[in-house]
Amino acid sequence: MIEKYIRDVPDFPKAGILFKDITPLLQSPEGLRASIQGLADAVDPGTYDLVVGIESRGFIFGTALAHHLGKGFVPIRKPGKLPWKTASESYVLEYGTDTIEIHVDAFEPGPRTLIVDDLLATGGTAEAALKLVRRVGGEPVACAFVIELGFLGGAAKLDVPTHALMKV
Ligand code: AMP
């Protein structure tokens, strides 16, 4: 049911990319509720203690999910944004590389975590997030996405169960 709220934007942010715009989903009370409830239903909340969200659209869904379930939230951010001591992980993009960071004391004393982002494409970002969470003592139990671009095969890179509310 969330499919109708995802807008396809061709050639954004560059030629050849079909961008999945989630803003109509966020704008719709019904769509937003369905996406947060869908994420809550996708992974048994009893199996994790904290939600980790990846900047920046992972913050929207991850924080709402954490609040909905009465759990805490940990941000994974782009470089140079977190003010405290960080661990970082770089990964390969289609062109060039990218880096994400987390606070080194994010998980004391090492809770079970659910990693959330809006969309799984090649899986590079989520794979780096899994490494980061483990490096600072967290235990990832699953990854959950609103959208998965299945034809890119990203889920195969992730060594925890992967869930998506909508698969393209
Ligand atoms: P990847 O590391 O290739 O799995 O890319 C995932 C990240 O890039 C997520 O944070 C997405 O928000 C973003 N992303 C990649 N491809 C798209 C797309 N076609 N539409 C919207 N966001 C995308």
Tell me which CATH architecture applies here: 3-Layer(aba) Sandwich
Count the domains: 1
Q: Counting H and I runs of at least 4 residues, what is the number of helices?
A: 4
Please provide the ordered H/E string of secondary-structure elements.
EEHHEHEEEEHEE
Task: Report on the architecture of this protein.
It is a single chain. With 168 residues, this protein is α/β, with parallel strands linked by helices. It has one domain (44-167): Rossmann fold (3-Layer(aba) Sandwich). It has four helices and nine strands. The protein has helices spanning 23-27, 29-42, 57-69, 124-135; strands at residues 7-10, 18-21, 50-54, 72-76, 86-92, 97-103, 112-120, 139-148, 162-167. The strands form three sheets. A five-stranded parallel beta sheet has the order 4-3-7-8-9, sandwiched between helices. Helix 2 (29-42) packs across helix 3 (57-69). The two termini are 14 Å apart. The model has no long low-confidence stretch (mean pLDDT 96). Adenosine monophosphate (AMP) binds at residues 17-20, 54, 57, 117-126, 154. Adenosine monophosphate binds next to strand 2, strand 7 and helix 4.
Defining traits:
single chain, 168 residues, alpha/beta, Rossmann fold, 5-stranded parallel β-sheet, two-stranded antiparallel ribbon, 4 helices, 26% helix, binds adenosine monophosphate
